[in-house]
Design goal:
The protein is an all-alpha fold and 155 residues long. It is 48% helix and 0% strand.
């Protein structure tokens, strides 16, 4: 199942979930990544949709709090991020914090990814006052990356 998700084998995922819906709840024994986090890593939106169709309460984050939105932002999977932001019941992911207290917006700022930052800031649900475990707000983290941020067109 994990390989079918990673390799974007939608037909295989469909057949497996139709045969046994509990497969949607699998977590990799190697990486502790649930299937939805693996789908986010590769940007496999249709696979994620299929998993959520069969298992609406499938795990969305690793044990350390790293969600499928964190992964999609980190992996620069714009289409996957857009899917999450378009899907109202997934908006709870926007302000979820990982073990370091970072939200997806913190990750987007750390990666100096203007598109991801803009997409997250455009959401009414985004809470700009969420500080990580070090007390840093996303806006404060940008100053740490000024050299890298200077090379971007932030308009």
């Amino acid at each position: 199942m994990q390989l079918a998700v990673i390799w974007n084998m939608l037909d295989v995922v469909k057949v497996l979930l139709e045969h046994d819906p509990s497969l949607g709840y699998l977590v990799s024994s190697k990486t502790n990544a649930p299937l939805l986090v693996s789908a986010a890593y590769r940007g496999n939106v249709e696979v994620a949709q299929e998993i959520l169709n069969h298992c609406p309460d499938a795990p969305i984050c690793n044990p350390d709090g790293w969600t499928m939105l964190h992964e999609a932002v980190f992996s620069r999977q714009e289409e996957f991020v857009d899917y999450i932001l378009r899907t109202r019941y997934l908006h709870k992911l926007i302000n979820m914090r990982d073990k370091d207290g970072d939200t997806a917006l913190h990750i987007a700022v750390l990666k100096c990814d203007a598109k991801m930052v803009c997409a997250l800031l455009a959401q009414k649900a985004t809470n700009l006052t969420v500080a990580n475990n070090k007390g840093a707000l996303p806006e404060n983290m940008l100053t740490c990356n000024t050299e890298q941020a200077k090379t971007l067109n932030w308009v």
